[in-house]
User: What shape does this take?
Amino acid sequence: MRPLNDIRQRFSTILKTLVFLTMVIVCSAIASYYFLPEDTAGSGVPPAGSGLPTPPVKTKVRGVPVTVVAASPSAYPARITVYGQAQALWQTTVKSQVNGRVDWISPAFRKGRLINKGGALVRINDSQYRANLAQADQAVSSAGLDLLKEKQEARQAKINWEASGLSGHPGSPLVLRGPQIELAKKAVATARANREAAAVDLSDCRIFAPFDGVVTDRLVSPGDTVSAGDPIAVIAGTHTMEVSLSLDAAQLALLGRTLTDARVSLRDEAAGVAYAAGKLRDSRTIDPETRLRKIFCSVEAPLSLDPPLLPGTFLTVDISGKPKTNLLRLPVSALTRQGLVWTVTRENTLVAMSASALFYEGDHVFVEAPADKVFPLNIAVAPNEAFVTGMKVRPSADTVAQAASVTPVQGT
Assistant: This one.
Protein backbone atom coordinates (compact mmCIF):
# COMPACT_ATOMS: atom_id res chain seq x y z
CA MET A 1 0.00 0.00 0.00
CA ARG A 2 2.86 2.40 0.83
CA PRO A 3 4.56 2.11 -2.61
CA LEU A 4 1.20 3.05 -4.18
CA ASN A 5 1.01 6.20 -2.03
CA ASP A 6 4.57 7.15 -3.01
CA ILE A 7 3.65 6.81 -6.68
CA ARG A 8 0.61 9.05 -6.20
CA GLN A 9 2.70 11.75 -4.45
CA ARG A 10 5.34 11.72 -7.20
CA PHE A 11 2.67 11.93 -9.87
CA SER A 12 1.04 14.91 -8.07
CA THR A 13 4.41 16.67 -7.81
CA ILE A 14 5.10 16.15 -11.52
CA LEU A 15 1.62 17.44 -12.43
CA LYS A 16 2.07 20.63 -10.35
CA THR A 17 5.47 21.21 -11.98
CA LEU A 18 3.94 20.89 -15.47
CA VAL A 19 1.17 23.37 -14.61
CA PHE A 20 3.74 25.88 -13.28
CA LEU A 21 5.90 25.57 -16.39
CA THR A 22 2.85 26.05 -18.61
CA MET A 23 1.92 29.27 -16.79
CA VAL A 24 5.47 30.56 -17.10
CA ILE A 25 5.46 29.90 -20.86
CA VAL A 26 2.08 31.65 -21.34
CA CYS A 27 3.15 34.71 -19.33
CA SER A 28 6.42 34.88 -21.26
CA ALA A 29 4.51 34.79 -24.55
CA ILE A 30 2.21 37.63 -23.44
CA ALA A 31 5.17 39.72 -22.23
CA SER A 32 7.04 39.14 -25.48
CA TYR A 33 3.95 40.29 -27.44
CA TYR A 34 3.58 43.62 -25.61
CA PHE A 35 7.31 44.32 -25.10
CA LEU A 36 9.10 43.51 -28.37
CA PRO A 37 12.48 45.04 -29.24
CA GLU A 38 12.43 47.53 -32.08
CA ASP A 39 13.67 46.37 -35.44
CA THR A 40 17.44 47.18 -35.75
CA ALA A 41 17.40 47.38 -39.56
CA GLY A 42 18.07 50.95 -40.63
CA SER A 43 18.31 52.13 -37.03
CA GLY A 44 22.05 52.76 -36.93
CA VAL A 45 22.80 49.61 -34.95
CA PRO A 46 26.05 48.06 -36.26
CA PRO A 47 25.74 44.52 -37.57
CA ALA A 48 26.99 41.67 -35.49
CA GLY A 49 30.72 40.90 -35.83
CA SER A 50 31.60 44.44 -36.94
CA GLY A 51 33.64 45.04 -33.82
CA LEU A 52 31.83 48.29 -33.12
CA PRO A 53 30.18 48.86 -29.73
CA THR A 54 26.51 47.95 -29.70
CA PRO A 55 24.18 50.52 -28.05
CA PRO A 56 21.54 49.28 -25.63
CA VAL A 57 18.44 47.95 -27.36
CA LYS A 58 15.37 50.17 -26.91
CA THR A 59 12.06 48.52 -26.19
CA LYS A 60 8.69 49.79 -27.35
CA VAL A 61 5.66 49.26 -25.13
CA ARG A 62 2.85 48.23 -27.46
CA GLY A 63 0.01 48.45 -24.90
CA VAL A 64 -3.36 46.75 -24.64
CA PRO A 65 -5.57 47.26 -27.72
CA VAL A 66 -8.76 49.16 -26.94
CA THR A 67 -11.73 50.46 -28.91
CA VAL A 68 -12.52 54.10 -28.25
CA VAL A 69 -15.29 56.48 -29.19
CA ALA A 70 -14.88 60.23 -29.55
CA ALA A 71 -17.28 62.19 -27.35
CA SER A 72 -17.97 65.92 -27.11
CA PRO A 73 -20.57 67.70 -24.95
CA SER A 74 -23.84 68.77 -26.52
CA ALA A 75 -27.52 69.26 -25.64
CA TYR A 76 -29.96 66.36 -25.72
CA PRO A 77 -33.60 66.06 -24.67
CA ALA A 78 -33.85 64.33 -21.31
CA ARG A 79 -35.40 60.91 -21.73
CA ILE A 80 -36.63 58.55 -19.06
CA THR A 81 -38.16 55.11 -19.35
CA VAL A 82 -40.67 53.83 -16.80
CA TYR A 83 -43.25 51.08 -16.74
CA GLY A 84 -46.96 51.02 -16.06
CA GLN A 85 -50.18 49.09 -16.56
CA ALA A 86 -53.11 50.28 -18.63
CA GLN A 87 -56.33 50.70 -16.67
CA ALA A 88 -59.70 52.03 -17.71
CA LEU A 89 -60.25 55.57 -16.47
CA TRP A 90 -63.74 54.55 -15.38
CA GLN A 91 -64.25 51.12 -13.83
CA THR A 92 -67.11 50.17 -11.56
CA THR A 93 -68.77 47.24 -9.88
CA VAL A 94 -72.50 47.47 -10.61
CA LYS A 95 -74.53 46.46 -7.55
CA SER A 96 -78.16 45.66 -6.92
CA GLN A 97 -80.16 48.32 -5.09
CA VAL A 98 -83.09 46.00 -4.25
CA ASN A 99 -83.81 42.48 -3.04
CA GLY A 100 -85.32 39.80 -5.24
CA ARG A 101 -84.94 37.01 -7.75
CA VAL A 102 -83.10 37.51 -11.04
CA ASP A 103 -85.80 36.92 -13.68
CA TRP A 104 -83.90 37.94 -16.82
CA ILE A 105 -80.34 38.56 -18.05
CA SER A 106 -79.54 40.34 -21.30
CA PRO A 107 -77.93 38.21 -24.04
CA ALA A 108 -75.32 40.99 -24.34
CA PHE A 109 -74.42 40.64 -20.68
CA ARG A 110 -71.37 38.39 -21.19
CA LYS A 111 -67.71 38.70 -20.30
CA GLY A 112 -65.81 40.59 -22.97
CA ARG A 113 -68.91 42.04 -24.61
CA LEU A 114 -69.09 45.74 -25.36
CA ILE A 115 -72.15 47.45 -23.93
CA ASN A 116 -73.48 50.95 -24.40
CA LYS A 117 -74.49 53.37 -21.70
CA GLY A 118 -78.08 52.60 -20.64
CA GLY A 119 -77.95 49.08 -22.02
CA ALA A 120 -80.05 46.63 -19.98
CA LEU A 121 -78.14 44.03 -18.00
CA VAL A 122 -80.49 42.35 -15.50
CA ARG A 123 -84.16 42.42 -14.47
CA ILE A 124 -85.12 41.51 -10.91
CA ASN A 125 -88.63 40.30 -10.02
CA ASP A 126 -90.65 43.46 -9.34
CA SER A 127 -94.03 42.21 -8.13
CA GLN A 128 -93.47 43.32 -4.54
CA TYR A 129 -92.17 46.71 -5.66
CA ARG A 130 -95.18 47.30 -7.90
CA ALA A 131 -97.42 46.56 -4.90
CA ASN A 132 -95.36 48.97 -2.78
CA LEU A 133 -95.81 51.68 -5.39
CA ALA A 134 -99.57 51.11 -5.49
CA GLN A 135 -99.77 51.41 -1.71
CA ALA A 136 -97.72 54.60 -1.87
CA ASP A 137 -100.12 56.01 -4.47
CA GLN A 138 -103.03 55.24 -2.16
CA ALA A 139 -101.27 56.87 0.77
CA VAL A 140 -100.77 60.05 -1.25
CA SER A 141 -104.46 60.17 -2.15
CA SER A 142 -105.52 59.50 1.45
CA ALA A 143 -103.24 62.23 2.80
CA GLY A 144 -104.58 64.66 0.23
CA LEU A 145 -108.14 63.86 1.25
CA ASP A 146 -107.29 64.40 4.92
CA LEU A 147 -105.83 67.80 4.07
CA LEU A 148 -109.00 68.81 2.24
CA LYS A 149 -111.08 67.77 5.23
CA GLU A 150 -108.92 69.82 7.61
CA LYS A 151 -109.21 72.87 5.41
CA GLN A 152 -112.98 72.48 5.30
CA GLU A 153 -113.20 72.13 9.05
CA ALA A 154 -110.94 75.17 9.48
CA ARG A 155 -113.30 77.29 7.36
CA GLN A 156 -116.28 76.11 9.37
CA ALA A 157 -114.47 76.82 12.64
CA LYS A 158 -113.79 80.38 11.51
CA ILE A 159 -117.47 80.89 10.64
CA ASN A 160 -118.54 79.56 14.02
CA TRP A 161 -116.09 81.83 15.84
CA GLU A 162 -117.30 84.90 14.03
CA ALA A 163 -120.94 83.93 14.66
CA SER A 164 -120.33 83.57 18.39
CA GLY A 165 -119.93 87.34 18.75
CA LEU A 166 -116.71 86.96 20.70
CA SER A 167 -114.11 89.62 20.08
CA GLY A 168 -110.41 89.08 19.48
CA HIS A 169 -108.75 85.77 18.66
CA PRO A 170 -109.35 82.34 20.17
CA GLY A 171 -107.21 81.48 23.17
CA SER A 172 -105.89 78.37 21.39
CA PRO A 173 -104.84 77.96 17.72
CA LEU A 174 -106.57 74.59 17.81
CA VAL A 175 -109.93 76.36 17.71
CA LEU A 176 -109.38 77.50 14.13
CA ARG A 177 -107.54 74.21 13.30
CA GLY A 178 -104.28 75.82 12.17
CA PRO A 179 -101.95 73.10 13.60
CA GLN A 180 -104.19 70.38 12.20
CA ILE A 181 -103.83 71.82 8.69
CA GLU A 182 -100.01 71.99 9.01
CA LEU A 183 -99.91 68.36 10.15
CA ALA A 184 -102.08 67.30 7.22
CA LYS A 185 -99.75 69.13 4.79
CA LYS A 186 -96.74 67.31 6.21
CA ALA A 187 -98.57 64.01 5.90
CA VAL A 188 -99.12 64.75 2.21
CA ALA A 189 -95.40 65.58 1.73
CA THR A 190 -94.38 62.36 3.49
CA ALA A 191 -96.72 60.28 1.36
CA ARG A 192 -95.35 61.83 -1.82
CA ALA A 193 -91.75 61.17 -0.74
CA ASN A 194 -92.62 57.56 0.02
CA ARG A 195 -94.19 57.28 -3.40
CA GLU A 196 -91.01 58.59 -5.05
CA ALA A 197 -88.92 56.06 -3.08
CA ALA A 198 -91.25 53.24 -4.13
CA ALA A 199 -90.98 54.35 -7.77
CA VAL A 200 -87.17 54.37 -7.52
CA ASP A 201 -87.18 50.87 -6.02
CA LEU A 202 -89.36 49.66 -8.86
CA SER A 203 -87.06 51.21 -11.48
CA ASP A 204 -84.02 49.68 -9.71
CA CYS A 205 -85.42 46.24 -10.53
CA ARG A 206 -83.96 46.89 -13.98
CA ILE A 207 -80.18 47.32 -13.95
CA PHE A 208 -78.47 49.22 -16.77
CA ALA A 209 -74.88 49.96 -17.81
CA PRO A 210 -73.74 53.28 -16.29
CA PHE A 211 -71.40 54.12 -19.22
CA ASP A 212 -70.00 52.71 -22.45
CA GLY A 213 -67.72 49.87 -21.53
CA VAL A 214 -66.71 46.25 -21.70
CA VAL A 215 -68.05 43.62 -19.31
CA THR A 216 -65.04 42.26 -17.44
CA ASP A 217 -67.03 40.09 -15.03
CA ARG A 218 -70.60 38.81 -14.68
CA LEU A 219 -71.53 37.84 -11.12
CA VAL A 220 -75.15 36.63 -11.35
CA SER A 221 -77.13 34.02 -13.23
CA PRO A 222 -80.87 33.64 -13.94
CA GLY A 223 -82.72 32.49 -10.85
CA ASP A 224 -80.20 33.87 -8.37
CA THR A 225 -81.59 35.73 -5.38
CA VAL A 226 -79.81 39.01 -4.72
CA SER A 227 -79.96 41.52 -1.90
CA ALA A 228 -79.34 45.24 -1.96
CA GLY A 229 -75.59 45.81 -2.25
CA ASP A 230 -74.78 42.48 -3.94
CA PRO A 231 -72.43 42.85 -6.95
CA ILE A 232 -73.93 42.19 -10.36
CA ALA A 233 -71.21 43.05 -12.88
CA VAL A 234 -67.80 44.70 -13.32
CA ILE A 235 -67.62 47.14 -16.24
CA ALA A 236 -64.52 48.94 -17.54
CA GLY A 237 -64.98 52.10 -19.60
CA THR A 238 -63.86 52.18 -23.21
CA HIS A 239 -63.53 55.92 -23.83
CA THR A 240 -60.18 56.48 -22.09
CA MET A 241 -57.36 54.25 -20.89
CA GLU A 242 -55.01 55.56 -18.22
CA VAL A 243 -51.49 54.52 -17.25
CA SER A 244 -50.21 55.24 -13.75
CA LEU A 245 -46.48 55.97 -13.47
CA SER A 246 -44.18 56.38 -10.45
CA LEU A 247 -41.28 58.84 -10.77
CA ASP A 248 -38.56 59.78 -8.32
CA ALA A 249 -37.21 63.27 -7.70
CA ALA A 250 -34.29 62.89 -10.13
CA GLN A 251 -36.58 61.84 -12.97
CA LEU A 252 -38.96 64.71 -12.29
CA ALA A 253 -36.04 67.14 -12.35
CA LEU A 254 -35.09 65.90 -15.83
CA LEU A 255 -38.62 66.49 -17.10
CA GLY A 256 -38.83 70.01 -15.71
CA ARG A 257 -41.69 71.78 -14.01
CA THR A 258 -44.07 71.79 -16.97
CA LEU A 259 -45.04 68.15 -17.43
CA THR A 260 -47.56 69.02 -20.12
CA ASP A 261 -44.68 69.85 -22.49
CA ALA A 262 -43.23 66.34 -22.26
CA ARG A 263 -43.65 63.94 -25.19
CA VAL A 264 -44.93 60.48 -24.27
CA SER A 265 -44.88 57.23 -26.22
CA LEU A 266 -46.15 53.85 -25.07
CA ARG A 267 -44.84 50.46 -26.16
CA ASP A 268 -46.27 47.00 -25.68
CA GLU A 269 -43.05 45.00 -25.80
CA ALA A 270 -44.86 41.66 -25.89
CA ALA A 271 -46.94 42.58 -28.94
CA GLY A 272 -44.28 44.81 -30.51
CA VAL A 273 -46.61 47.77 -31.02
CA ALA A 274 -46.52 51.44 -30.02
CA TYR A 275 -49.31 53.80 -29.00
CA ALA A 276 -49.54 57.57 -28.92
CA ALA A 277 -50.41 59.06 -25.54
CA GLY A 278 -51.85 62.37 -24.46
CA LYS A 279 -50.26 64.89 -22.13
CA LEU A 280 -49.02 63.94 -18.69
CA ARG A 281 -51.17 64.70 -15.67
CA ASP A 282 -49.64 65.22 -12.24
CA SER A 283 -51.39 63.65 -9.26
CA ARG A 284 -49.74 66.18 -6.93
CA THR A 285 -49.34 63.44 -4.36
CA ILE A 286 -46.44 61.30 -3.15
CA ASP A 287 -46.88 57.65 -2.23
CA PRO A 288 -46.18 57.43 1.52
CA GLU A 289 -44.60 53.97 1.17
CA THR A 290 -42.42 54.33 -1.93
CA ARG A 291 -41.91 58.12 -1.67
CA LEU A 292 -42.48 58.28 -5.44
CA ARG A 293 -44.71 60.76 -7.21
CA LYS A 294 -47.66 59.55 -9.24
CA ILE A 295 -47.97 60.73 -12.84
CA PHE A 296 -50.71 59.74 -15.28
CA CYS A 297 -50.93 59.59 -19.06
CA SER A 298 -54.03 58.71 -21.04
CA VAL A 299 -54.97 57.16 -24.37
CA GLU A 300 -58.29 58.09 -25.99
CA ALA A 301 -60.51 55.51 -27.74
CA PRO A 302 -58.16 52.63 -26.85
CA LEU A 303 -60.34 49.88 -28.36
CA SER A 304 -60.43 51.58 -31.75
CA LEU A 305 -56.63 51.31 -32.09
CA ASP A 306 -54.94 48.59 -34.14
CA PRO A 307 -54.35 46.44 -32.16
CA PRO A 308 -56.68 47.59 -29.35
CA LEU A 309 -55.10 48.72 -26.10
CA LEU A 310 -56.74 46.48 -23.51
CA PRO A 311 -57.02 46.96 -19.75
CA GLY A 312 -54.19 45.24 -17.92
CA THR A 313 -51.64 45.66 -20.74
CA PHE A 314 -48.11 46.12 -19.35
CA LEU A 315 -46.46 49.06 -21.11
CA THR A 316 -43.03 50.59 -21.46
CA VAL A 317 -43.39 54.37 -21.28
CA ASP A 318 -40.77 56.66 -22.84
CA ILE A 319 -40.95 60.31 -21.76
CA SER A 320 -38.88 63.04 -23.43
CA GLY A 321 -38.51 66.20 -21.39
CA LYS A 322 -36.70 69.48 -21.70
CA PRO A 323 -33.27 69.57 -23.43
CA LYS A 324 -30.31 69.36 -21.09
CA THR A 325 -26.97 70.90 -22.04
CA ASN A 326 -23.37 69.74 -21.50
CA LEU A 327 -24.02 66.04 -21.90
CA LEU A 328 -21.87 63.23 -23.24
CA ARG A 329 -23.58 60.46 -25.19
CA LEU A 330 -21.69 57.21 -24.58
CA PRO A 331 -22.22 53.50 -25.21
CA VAL A 332 -23.77 51.84 -22.17
CA SER A 333 -20.75 49.51 -21.92
CA ALA A 334 -18.43 52.51 -21.38
CA LEU A 335 -19.87 53.20 -17.90
CA THR A 336 -18.66 50.64 -15.37
CA ARG A 337 -20.61 49.35 -12.40
CA GLN A 338 -18.26 51.37 -10.20
CA GLY A 339 -19.40 54.58 -11.90
CA LEU A 340 -16.22 55.12 -13.91
CA VAL A 341 -15.55 56.09 -17.52
CA TRP A 342 -12.04 55.40 -18.83
CA THR A 343 -10.51 58.02 -21.13
CA VAL A 344 -7.45 57.60 -23.34
CA THR A 345 -4.95 60.46 -23.29
CA ARG A 346 -2.81 61.67 -26.21
CA GLU A 347 0.01 59.62 -24.73
CA ASN A 348 -2.25 56.54 -25.02
CA THR A 349 -2.58 56.04 -21.29
CA LEU A 350 -5.73 55.44 -19.28
CA VAL A 351 -7.32 57.99 -16.95
CA ALA A 352 -10.45 57.21 -14.92
CA MET A 353 -13.28 59.72 -14.80
CA SER A 354 -16.19 59.51 -12.34
CA ALA A 355 -19.63 59.67 -13.96
CA SER A 356 -23.21 58.83 -13.15
CA ALA A 357 -25.98 58.01 -15.60
CA LEU A 358 -28.56 60.76 -16.01
CA PHE A 359 -30.72 58.77 -18.41
CA TYR A 360 -30.56 56.09 -21.08
CA GLU A 361 -31.64 55.83 -24.69
CA GLY A 362 -31.37 52.44 -26.33
CA ASP A 363 -27.74 51.28 -26.11
CA HIS A 364 -26.47 54.67 -24.97
CA VAL A 365 -26.12 56.42 -21.66
CA PHE A 366 -25.97 60.16 -21.06
CA VAL A 367 -23.60 61.60 -18.45
CA GLU A 368 -22.64 65.13 -17.52
CA ALA A 369 -19.48 66.36 -19.24
CA PRO A 370 -16.66 67.32 -16.84
CA ALA A 371 -15.60 70.95 -16.81
CA ASP A 372 -11.85 70.26 -16.57
CA LYS A 373 -11.41 68.23 -19.75
CA VAL A 374 -10.36 69.09 -23.30
CA PHE A 375 -12.76 67.72 -25.87
CA PRO A 376 -13.29 65.57 -27.77
CA LEU A 377 -12.51 62.80 -25.31
CA ASN A 378 -11.49 59.34 -26.42
CA ILE A 379 -13.63 56.99 -24.32
CA ALA A 380 -12.87 53.30 -23.92
CA VAL A 381 -15.95 51.46 -25.18
CA ALA A 382 -15.45 48.19 -23.28
CA PRO A 383 -13.32 48.68 -20.16
CA ASN A 384 -12.32 45.67 -18.10
CA GLU A 385 -11.41 45.12 -14.48
CA ALA A 386 -7.69 45.13 -15.28
CA PHE A 387 -7.73 48.83 -16.22
CA VAL A 388 -5.65 51.08 -13.95
CA THR A 389 -4.75 54.74 -14.23
CA GLY A 390 -1.60 55.23 -16.31
CA MET A 391 -1.88 51.88 -18.05
CA LYS A 392 -0.53 51.92 -21.59
CA VAL A 393 -3.08 51.15 -24.32
CA ARG A 394 -3.09 50.96 -28.09
CA PRO A 395 -6.10 52.60 -29.82
CA SER A 396 -5.18 51.76 -33.40
CA ALA A 397 -6.92 53.43 -36.32
CA ASP A 398 -9.05 50.41 -37.19
CA THR A 399 -10.39 50.15 -33.63
CA VAL A 400 -11.55 53.75 -33.24
CA ALA A 401 -15.36 53.80 -33.24
CA GLN A 402 -17.25 56.79 -34.45
CA ALA A 403 -20.06 58.22 -32.30
CA ALA A 404 -23.50 56.93 -33.30
CA SER A 405 -25.38 59.42 -35.43
CA VAL A 406 -27.97 61.20 -33.28
CA THR A 407 -28.87 64.78 -33.95
CA PRO A 408 -28.33 66.74 -30.72
CA VAL A 409 -30.56 69.61 -29.74
CA GLN A 410 -28.91 72.84 -30.70
CA GLY A 411 -28.26 75.23 -27.82
CA THR A 412 -30.97 76.00 -25.31
About this structure: Residues 33 and 62 are 8 Å apart (CA to CA). Residues 127-163 form the longest helix (37 residues). Helices lie at 2-34, 127-163, 178-203, 249-255.
